[in-house]
Design a protein that fits this description.
- It contains 16 helices and no strands.
- The chain is mainly α.
- Helix 2 packs across helix 3.
- The termini are far apart.
Protein backbone atom coordinates (compact mmCIF):
# COMPACT_ATOMS: atom_id res chain seq x y z
CA UNK A 1 0.00 0.00 0.00
CA UNK A 2 1.36 3.40 -0.98
CA UNK A 3 1.63 6.03 1.74
CA UNK A 4 0.13 9.24 0.49
CA UNK A 5 0.27 12.54 2.27
CA UNK A 6 -2.34 15.21 1.69
CA UNK A 7 -2.40 18.95 1.82
CA UNK A 8 -5.55 20.70 2.98
CA UNK A 9 -6.02 23.66 0.68
CA UNK A 10 -7.51 25.64 3.48
CA UNK A 11 -6.86 29.26 2.64
CA UNK A 12 -6.21 28.92 -1.09
CA UNK A 13 -9.65 27.60 -1.94
CA UNK A 14 -11.89 27.51 1.10
CA UNK A 15 -11.42 31.25 1.46
CA UNK A 16 -10.77 32.25 -2.13
CA UNK A 17 -11.96 35.72 -3.05
CA UNK A 18 -14.58 34.33 -5.40
CA UNK A 19 -16.14 32.23 -2.66
CA UNK A 20 -16.01 35.15 -0.25
CA UNK A 21 -17.63 37.49 -2.76
CA UNK A 22 -20.55 35.06 -2.77
CA UNK A 23 -20.79 35.29 1.02
CA UNK A 24 -20.75 39.10 0.87
CA UNK A 25 -23.47 39.03 -1.81
CA UNK A 26 -25.64 36.75 0.34
CA UNK A 27 -25.16 38.95 3.40
CA UNK A 28 -26.04 42.12 1.48
CA UNK A 29 -29.10 40.42 -0.02
CA UNK A 30 -30.30 39.26 3.41
CA UNK A 31 -29.78 42.75 4.82
CA UNK A 32 -31.72 44.34 1.99
CA UNK A 33 -34.58 41.90 2.43
CA UNK A 34 -34.67 42.75 6.15
CA UNK A 35 -34.23 46.48 5.47
CA UNK A 36 -31.11 46.56 7.61
CA UNK A 37 -28.19 48.91 6.97
CA UNK A 38 -26.15 48.32 10.13
CA UNK A 39 -22.55 47.40 9.27
CA UNK A 40 -22.00 45.43 12.48
CA UNK A 41 -25.06 43.29 11.74
CA UNK A 42 -23.83 42.71 8.21
CA UNK A 43 -20.41 41.61 9.42
CA UNK A 44 -21.96 39.14 11.85
CA UNK A 45 -24.08 37.74 9.03
CA UNK A 46 -21.04 37.47 6.77
CA UNK A 47 -19.10 35.63 9.45
CA UNK A 48 -22.03 33.26 9.91
CA UNK A 49 -22.06 32.41 6.19
CA UNK A 50 -18.29 31.85 6.20
CA UNK A 51 -18.55 29.61 9.27
CA UNK A 52 -21.35 27.57 7.67
CA UNK A 53 -19.31 26.91 4.52
CA UNK A 54 -16.31 25.98 6.64
CA UNK A 55 -18.36 23.52 8.70
CA UNK A 56 -19.84 21.94 5.59
CA UNK A 57 -16.36 21.29 4.25
CA UNK A 58 -15.40 19.72 7.56
CA UNK A 59 -18.56 17.65 7.46
CA UNK A 60 -17.74 16.45 3.94
CA UNK A 61 -14.25 15.39 4.97
CA UNK A 62 -15.72 13.66 8.00
CA UNK A 63 -18.10 11.77 5.73
CA UNK A 64 -15.14 10.01 4.12
CA UNK A 65 -13.80 8.87 7.47
CA UNK A 66 -17.26 7.71 8.60
CA UNK A 67 -17.80 5.91 5.30
CA UNK A 68 -14.52 4.04 5.74
CA UNK A 69 -15.47 3.17 9.33
CA UNK A 70 -18.84 1.82 8.18
CA UNK A 71 -17.21 -0.27 5.44
CA UNK A 72 -14.79 -1.72 7.98
CA UNK A 73 -17.68 -2.51 10.32
CA UNK A 74 -19.74 -4.13 7.56
CA UNK A 75 -16.77 -6.26 6.54
CA UNK A 76 -16.34 -7.48 10.12
CA UNK A 77 -20.01 -8.41 10.35
CA UNK A 78 -19.89 -10.37 7.10
CA UNK A 79 -16.70 -12.18 8.08
CA UNK A 80 -18.21 -13.18 11.43
CA UNK A 81 -21.15 -14.98 9.84
CA UNK A 82 -21.21 -18.73 10.32
CA UNK A 83 -22.49 -19.24 6.78
CA UNK A 84 -21.48 -16.20 4.72
CA UNK A 85 -23.05 -15.87 1.30
CA UNK A 86 -21.09 -15.41 -1.89
CA UNK A 87 -22.08 -11.73 -1.79
CA UNK A 88 -20.70 -11.50 1.76
CA UNK A 89 -17.40 -13.03 0.66
CA UNK A 90 -17.13 -10.62 -2.28
CA UNK A 91 -17.66 -7.54 -0.11
CA UNK A 92 -14.50 -5.43 -0.37
CA UNK A 93 -13.19 -3.19 2.41
CA UNK A 94 -10.49 -1.66 0.22
CA UNK A 95 -11.82 1.89 0.60
CA UNK A 96 -11.45 1.59 4.38
CA UNK A 97 -7.68 1.41 3.85
CA UNK A 98 -7.55 4.20 1.26
CA UNK A 99 -4.36 6.13 2.08
CA UNK A 100 -6.02 9.49 1.47
CA UNK A 101 -8.71 8.69 4.00
CA UNK A 102 -6.07 7.39 6.41
CA UNK A 103 -4.27 10.73 6.06
CA UNK A 104 -7.46 12.47 7.10
CA UNK A 105 -7.81 10.12 10.04
CA UNK A 106 -4.28 10.91 11.21
CA UNK A 107 -4.79 14.69 11.06
CA UNK A 108 -5.35 15.49 14.73
CA UNK A 109 -6.53 19.07 14.20
CA UNK A 110 -8.96 18.02 11.48
CA UNK A 111 -10.44 15.23 13.56
CA UNK A 112 -10.71 17.45 16.63
CA UNK A 113 -12.82 19.85 14.59
CA UNK A 114 -14.91 17.09 13.03
CA UNK A 115 -15.67 15.70 16.48
CA UNK A 116 -17.08 19.10 17.47
CA UNK A 117 -19.80 18.63 14.86
CA UNK A 118 -22.76 16.83 16.37
CA UNK A 119 -23.41 13.40 14.84
CA UNK A 120 -27.16 13.04 14.46
CA UNK A 121 -29.25 10.07 13.38
CA UNK A 122 -29.83 11.89 10.11
CA UNK A 123 -26.08 11.98 9.48
CA UNK A 124 -25.68 8.31 10.35
CA UNK A 125 -28.45 7.49 7.87
CA UNK A 126 -26.70 9.64 5.27
CA UNK A 127 -23.47 7.64 5.61
CA UNK A 128 -25.47 4.42 5.11
CA UNK A 129 -27.14 5.89 2.02
CA UNK A 130 -23.73 6.89 0.71
CA UNK A 131 -22.41 3.35 1.19
CA UNK A 132 -25.48 1.83 -0.48
CA UNK A 133 -25.08 4.20 -3.42
CA UNK A 134 -21.37 3.62 -3.94
CA UNK A 135 -21.70 -0.17 -3.80
CA UNK A 136 -23.91 -0.03 -6.86
CA UNK A 137 -21.53 2.06 -8.98
CA UNK A 138 -19.33 0.49 -11.64
CA UNK A 139 -16.52 2.93 -10.80
CA UNK A 140 -16.37 1.55 -7.27
CA UNK A 141 -16.60 -2.07 -8.41
CA UNK A 142 -13.72 -1.43 -10.81
CA UNK A 143 -11.68 0.10 -7.99
CA UNK A 144 -12.33 -2.88 -5.71
CA UNK A 145 -11.50 -5.36 -8.48
CA UNK A 146 -8.00 -3.96 -9.11
CA UNK A 147 -5.27 -6.40 -8.13
CA UNK A 148 -3.01 -3.54 -7.07
CA UNK A 149 -3.84 0.14 -6.80
CA UNK A 150 -1.65 3.11 -7.60
CA UNK A 151 -1.83 6.48 -5.84
CA UNK A 152 -3.77 7.68 -8.88
CA UNK A 153 -6.35 4.92 -8.43
CA UNK A 154 -6.76 5.76 -4.75
CA UNK A 155 -7.14 9.45 -5.46
CA UNK A 156 -9.52 8.86 -8.37
CA UNK A 157 -12.08 7.02 -6.25
CA UNK A 158 -12.05 9.80 -3.64
CA UNK A 159 -12.53 12.41 -6.35
CA UNK A 160 -15.36 10.36 -7.81
CA UNK A 161 -17.14 10.34 -4.45
CA UNK A 162 -16.89 14.09 -4.00
CA UNK A 163 -17.31 15.34 -7.53
CA UNK A 164 -19.80 12.85 -8.98
CA UNK A 165 -21.50 10.70 -6.38
CA UNK A 166 -22.08 12.97 -3.39
CA UNK A 167 -23.56 16.03 -5.21
CA UNK A 168 -26.17 13.79 -6.87
CA UNK A 169 -27.11 11.85 -3.74
CA UNK A 170 -30.62 12.90 -2.76
CA UNK A 171 -30.09 12.31 0.96
CA UNK A 172 -27.01 14.51 0.89
CA UNK A 173 -28.72 17.38 -0.90
CA UNK A 174 -31.64 17.19 1.51
CA UNK A 175 -29.24 17.22 4.45
CA UNK A 176 -27.47 20.32 3.11
CA UNK A 177 -30.79 22.04 2.37
CA UNK A 178 -31.90 21.44 5.96
CA UNK A 179 -28.64 22.28 7.72
CA UNK A 180 -26.63 24.50 5.36
CA UNK A 181 -29.20 26.28 3.15
CA UNK A 182 -26.78 29.17 2.52
CA UNK A 183 -24.44 26.72 0.78
CA UNK A 184 -26.93 24.93 -1.45
CA UNK A 185 -26.33 27.10 -4.54
CA UNK A 186 -22.58 26.57 -4.36
CA UNK A 187 -22.70 22.89 -3.54
CA UNK A 188 -20.87 21.75 -6.67
CA UNK A 189 -18.09 24.25 -6.00
CA UNK A 190 -17.82 23.22 -2.36
CA UNK A 191 -17.55 19.54 -3.26
CA UNK A 192 -15.00 20.32 -5.95
CA UNK A 193 -12.96 22.38 -3.49
CA UNK A 194 -13.03 19.57 -0.96
CA UNK A 195 -11.77 17.16 -3.60
CA UNK A 196 -8.76 19.42 -4.11
CA UNK A 197 -7.72 18.65 -0.54
CA UNK A 198 -6.09 15.48 -1.83
CA UNK A 199 -2.69 16.03 -3.41
CA UNK A 200 0.55 14.07 -3.26
CA UNK A 201 2.43 16.86 -1.54
CA UNK A 202 3.71 17.36 2.03
CA UNK A 203 0.87 17.33 4.51
CA UNK A 204 0.31 20.75 6.08
CA UNK A 205 -2.80 19.80 8.02
CA UNK A 206 -5.72 21.85 9.24
CA UNK A 207 -5.25 24.87 11.46
CA UNK A 208 -6.42 24.47 15.05
CA UNK A 209 -9.49 26.54 14.33
CA UNK A 210 -11.09 28.66 11.64
CA UNK A 211 -8.89 31.76 11.16
CA UNK A 212 -10.40 35.19 11.61
CA UNK A 213 -7.51 37.30 10.38
CA UNK A 214 -6.94 35.58 7.04
CA UNK A 215 -6.13 38.23 4.39
CA UNK A 216 -8.98 37.09 2.16
CA UNK A 217 -11.49 37.23 5.02
CA UNK A 218 -10.28 40.76 5.75
CA UNK A 219 -10.96 41.56 2.10
CA UNK A 220 -14.53 40.21 2.42
CA UNK A 221 -15.20 42.26 5.54
CA UNK A 222 -13.88 45.41 3.89
CA UNK A 223 -15.91 44.74 0.76
CA UNK A 224 -19.12 44.41 2.76
CA UNK A 225 -18.30 47.43 4.94
CA UNK A 226 -17.35 49.74 2.07
CA UNK A 227 -20.35 48.66 -0.01
CA UNK A 228 -22.71 49.51 2.85
CA UNK A 229 -20.96 52.75 3.79
CA UNK A 230 -20.88 53.98 0.18
CA UNK A 231 -24.42 52.91 -0.70
CA UNK A 232 -25.54 56.35 -1.88
CA UNK A 233 -22.37 57.03 -3.83
CA UNK A 234 -22.49 53.65 -5.55
CA UNK A 235 -26.12 54.13 -6.56
CA UNK A 236 -25.32 57.59 -7.93
CA UNK A 237 -22.50 56.12 -10.03
CA UNK A 238 -24.66 53.32 -11.45
CA UNK A 239 -27.97 55.18 -11.87
CA UNK A 240 -27.00 57.39 -14.86
CA UNK A 241 -26.11 54.31 -16.88
CA UNK A 242 -29.44 52.58 -16.35
CA UNK A 243 -31.22 54.92 -18.80
CA UNK A 244 -34.49 53.19 -19.67
CA UNK A 245 -34.22 50.81 -16.74
CA UNK A 246 -36.24 51.35 -13.60
CA UNK A 247 -33.73 50.86 -10.77
CA UNK A 248 -36.43 49.54 -8.46
CA UNK A 249 -37.38 46.82 -10.95
CA UNK A 250 -33.86 45.55 -11.60
CA UNK A 251 -33.21 42.18 -10.00
CA UNK A 252 -31.95 42.74 -6.46
CA UNK A 253 -29.00 40.42 -7.00
CA UNK A 254 -28.01 42.34 -10.14
CA UNK A 255 -27.97 45.65 -8.28
CA UNK A 256 -26.05 44.15 -5.37
CA UNK A 257 -23.45 42.64 -7.71
CA UNK A 258 -23.04 45.93 -9.55
CA UNK A 259 -22.60 47.87 -6.32
CA UNK A 260 -20.02 45.38 -5.12
CA UNK A 261 -18.18 45.59 -8.44
CA UNK A 262 -18.11 49.39 -8.45
CA UNK A 263 -16.97 49.32 -4.83
CA UNK A 264 -14.01 47.18 -5.88
CA UNK A 265 -13.22 49.52 -8.76
CA UNK A 266 -12.99 52.60 -6.57
CA UNK A 267 -11.96 51.22 -3.17
CA UNK A 268 -9.59 48.31 -3.80
CA UNK A 269 -6.55 49.69 -5.56
CA UNK A 270 -4.73 46.36 -5.67
CA UNK A 271 -7.41 44.48 -7.67
CA UNK A 272 -7.21 44.86 -11.47
CA UNK A 273 -10.30 46.36 -13.09
CA UNK A 274 -10.84 43.46 -15.48
CA UNK A 275 -10.57 40.95 -12.66
CA UNK A 276 -13.33 42.67 -10.70
CA UNK A 277 -15.67 43.02 -13.67
CA UNK A 278 -15.15 39.45 -14.86
CA UNK A 279 -15.71 38.07 -11.36
CA UNK A 280 -19.11 39.74 -11.04
CA UNK A 281 -20.18 38.75 -14.54
CA UNK A 282 -19.37 35.15 -13.63
CA UNK A 283 -21.35 35.42 -10.39
CA UNK A 284 -24.32 36.82 -12.32
CA UNK A 285 -24.28 33.71 -14.53
CA UNK A 286 -24.68 31.51 -11.47
CA UNK A 287 -26.85 33.50 -9.11
CA UNK A 288 -29.07 35.75 -11.21
CA UNK A 289 -31.25 35.65 -14.33
CA UNK A 290 -30.16 34.32 -17.76
CA UNK A 291 -29.90 37.88 -19.10
CA UNK A 292 -28.09 39.32 -16.10
CA UNK A 293 -24.54 38.66 -17.23
CA UNK A 294 -24.99 40.69 -20.43
CA UNK A 295 -26.87 43.43 -18.60
CA UNK A 296 -24.25 43.71 -15.85
CA UNK A 297 -21.42 43.51 -18.37
CA UNK A 298 -22.85 46.45 -20.34
CA UNK A 299 -23.52 48.60 -17.28
CA UNK A 300 -20.14 47.97 -15.68
CA UNK A 301 -18.29 48.63 -18.93
CA UNK A 302 -19.91 52.06 -19.20
CA UNK A 303 -19.46 52.79 -15.50
CA UNK A 304 -15.78 51.89 -15.78
CA UNK A 305 -15.33 54.42 -18.60
CA UNK A 306 -17.13 57.09 -16.57
CA UNK A 307 -14.92 56.47 -13.55
CA UNK A 308 -11.74 56.56 -15.62
CA UNK A 309 -12.85 59.84 -17.17
CA UNK A 310 -13.33 61.34 -13.69
CA UNK A 311 -10.06 59.82 -12.38
CA UNK A 312 -12.00 57.86 -9.75
CA UNK A 313 -10.21 54.61 -10.52
CA UNK A 314 -6.69 54.48 -9.19
CA UNK A 315 -4.85 51.18 -9.45
CA UNK A 316 -1.35 50.64 -8.17
CA UNK A 317 1.25 48.00 -8.93
CA UNK A 318 2.42 46.26 -12.09
CA UNK A 319 -0.31 44.80 -14.25
CA UNK A 320 -3.13 46.60 -12.45
CA UNK A 321 -3.79 49.20 -15.10
CA UNK A 322 -6.26 48.12 -17.76
Amino acid sequence: MHYIRIKVLYQQDMFSRRNLRVKVMLALYAMEMNQCEDVATGLKMLQSFIAKAYKLRLFNLGLLVRLADLIRKERAIKESKFLPTEKDRQFSARLAANPYIESLRKDKNLNAQILKLTQTEEEQALVKDLLKSILGKKEYRHYCALENTSPEDERAIVLYIFEKLLPNLRAYREYVEDNYPECLNELARINYSVSQVFESVPHQGMPAEQPSDNAEIVFARELLTYTLQQEERLRNIIQPRLKNWDADRIARIDMILMKMAVCELISFNEIPVKVSINEYIDLAKIYSTPRSKDFINGILDNVMRDLYARNEIVKTGRGLIE
